[in-house]
Amino acid sequence: MATDPEAPGVRPTQRIGRFAPSPTGLLHAGSLVAALASWLDARAQGGLWRVRIEDVDTPRCVPGAGEEILRQLACCGLHPDGEVWWQSRRGEAYAAALKRLVDAGQAYPCGCSRKEIAQAQAALGHGHARHGELVYPGTCRHGLQGKPARAWRLRTDAPNGGDRHIDWTDRRLGPQTQNLTQAVGDFVLRRADGLWAYQLAVVVDDAEQGITDVVRGEDLADNTPRQIHLQRLLGLPTPRYLHTPLVLAADGQKLSKQNGATPLDLRDPLAALRQAGQALGLPTDLPGANLADWLGTAVPAWAARWPVPGT
What we know:
Pfam families: tRNA-synt_1c (PF00749). GO terms for molecular function: ligase activity. L-glutamate binds at residues 18-22, 54, 198, 216. Zn(2+) binds at residues 110, 112, 136, 140. This is Glutamyl-Q tRNA(Asp) synthetase. The structure is a single chain. Mean pLDDT is 89; it is low at 1-12. Helix 1 (29-44) packs across helix 8. The chain has helices at residues 29-44, 65-75, 91-103, 114-123, 180-183, 198-208, 224-234, 269-279, 291-305; strands spanning 16-19, 48-53, 85-86, 107-110, 151-154, 165-170, 174-179, 187-190, 213-217, 240-244. Strand 2 (48-53), helix 2 and strand 3 (85-86) form a beta-alpha-beta unit. It is an alpha/beta fold and 311 residues long. The two termini are 27 Å apart. The radius of gyration is 20 Å and the shape is elongated.
């Protein structure tokens, strides 16, 4: 499933980063920060930069947004190396990964509705949702109990039946740990509506694209333990992770499409890049009269601020 190290243009030690936007809207100031950070990190390591359109959640995707995002990136001088991937076209790869997990006894069908999950949590004395998502207690882990299958879930218990703890180190946030069993529970790989879940899709795609370094917003750090768990079960390499500071709106909330963030004003793309660089902690006085010059000076500035361990 991993990228062939002998494939043309990919060396065994090649560093590869990626930007993977969801086309539920156009790029805004916060998503440009993530794009720039991932581009700078790849270039600072002399590596490649991939772009992947994560349109697996098709009901939420805006028609034409993926193509417009690519145009926005190009307007900012951020050009991907190689073909752009679209998750909506990769169902066969996700199905193959799910089959491997099912065959290994790590994934199982779940017949629980959201109401039933809430009732099960209440019976355990857990009455609240986590980030709007109910922690699944493993009700169907040992059988559907006569219910029809709705979704497919991944086991998060340890081999001895206890809790599974995931430890990892982020290049910015430092050592991290999560009790995956208690904090998340058995999570969905394929949804009740038949769509593939983000966690499975991103792990399969990162491996097949040979991604060595994931640079993304801090709001996604909470996803990392689930992805590491999947990588280990599928025998896939774990990339290095760096989660960048969030860009906040005037009310202190994360700047996002859901919060009504306005699309980038790219009448002056250099000004937009400078603002994104400041959000990443780059010097405010980086020289550069045009996009190429500014990006050229931003690469060593990034390398100095966020060196890669072991290099």
